[in-house]
Specification:
Blueprint: E1 3-5, E2 17-19, E3 34-36, E4 61-63, E5 76-82, E6 91-96, E7 101-105, E8 115-116, E9 130-132, E10 141-143, E11 163-169, E12 172-176, E13 182-186, E14 190-193, H1 209-214, E15 269-271
Antiparallel strand pairs: 1-2, 3-4, 5-6, 5-8, 6-7, 9-14, 10-11, 10-14, 11-12, 12-13, 13-15
């Protein structure tokens, strides 16, 4: 996948870059796997803003993705590689031997016509194949990793993401996550071989504010530019620093303050991510 630049005919195009989308094979999604996606504008069920700086943007339809990969033992073939407006990676439409079609996350270098399979036993270590971690060799790069058996993939699903199996001990494997955290995952949890597609997603330069508005992102306003009633950093004469450590609009410290409170899963973390 390549990155293209634009002739600077306007100031907004000078630094703008985009993907060439060479890997995509169609621009028409498979309609039976589409669902309407309601836009919330960052509001909750009470109509109050629960996520700031959201709203507007282009209309989208949700693609139903098979994160569980529970089509066990049925061979499939990659029918197309498509764009998904709801995620950073590309998706693949898989046609199985029994005629059913499902979307999965596309892996790097996935080609139309490629055969894939999801099994409960040993299978070929090829990109796109899914199996329990128990049968994946050490050092293999995987994605779409389950943290609880049968729940579906929760880890390493973004564009270019991939985790690596470092060791197996007892009923658990030690996996290095994309964040460099090393975590224990049960051997019966499923994962997909390979890295997620579209690794150049992180190298894109948006170029102008309007392009963010197309994505449904409204302007992010600094707290120091607000009034005291709107943000703890607001108010003061001139460009005041606020006189306190950086906090969120609700008053929670935002730099160096640990917010993890899940003691139940603390035992599965072998090494925390590096700062």
């Amino acid at each position: 996948m390549g990155i293209k630049s634009y002739n600077p005919t306007t100031s907004s195009l000078r630094h703008r870059t985009g993907l060439t989308y060479e890997e995509l094979t169609t621009n028409k999604p498979y309609k039976p796997l589409l669902e309407p996606k309601k836009r919330t504008g960052g509001r909750n069920s009470q109509g109050r803003i629960s996520m700031r700086h959201r709203g507007g943007g282009h209309k989208r339809a949700y693609r139903i993705i098979d994160f569980k990969r529970d089509k066990i033992g049925v061979p499939g073939e990659v029918e197309s590689i498509e764009y998904d407006p709801n995620r950073s990676s590309f998706i693949s439409l898989i046609k199985y031997k029994d005629g059913e079609r499902r979307y999965i996350l596309a892996t790097q270098d996935m080609k139309v016509g490629q055969d894939i399979i999801s099994t409960d036993s040993q299978a070929d270590i090829l990109p796109g194949n899914a199996m329990p971690i128990r049968f994946v060799p050490l050092g293999t790069v995987i994605h779409n990793i389950e943290l609880r058996k049968g729940k579906g993939g929760q880890v390493a699903k973004a564009a270019g993401a991939g985790a690596q199996i470092l060791a197996k001990e007892g009923d658990y494997a030690q996996i290095r996550m994309p964040s460099s955290e090393i975590r224990r995952v049960h051997l019966d949890c499923r994962a997909t071989i390979g890295e997620v597609s579209n690794p150049d997603h992180k190298n894109i330069s948006i170029g102008k504010a309007g392009r963010k508005r197309w994505m449904g992102r409204r302007p992010h306003v600094r707290g120091t530019a607000m009034n005291p009633i709107d943000h703890p950093h607001g108010g003061g004469e001139g460009k005041a620093k606020g006189g306190r450590n950086p906090v969120s609009p609700t008053g929670q410290p935002t730099k160096g303050y640990r917010t993890r409170r899940n003691k139940r899963t603390q035992q599965f973390i072998v090494r925390r991510r590096s700062k």
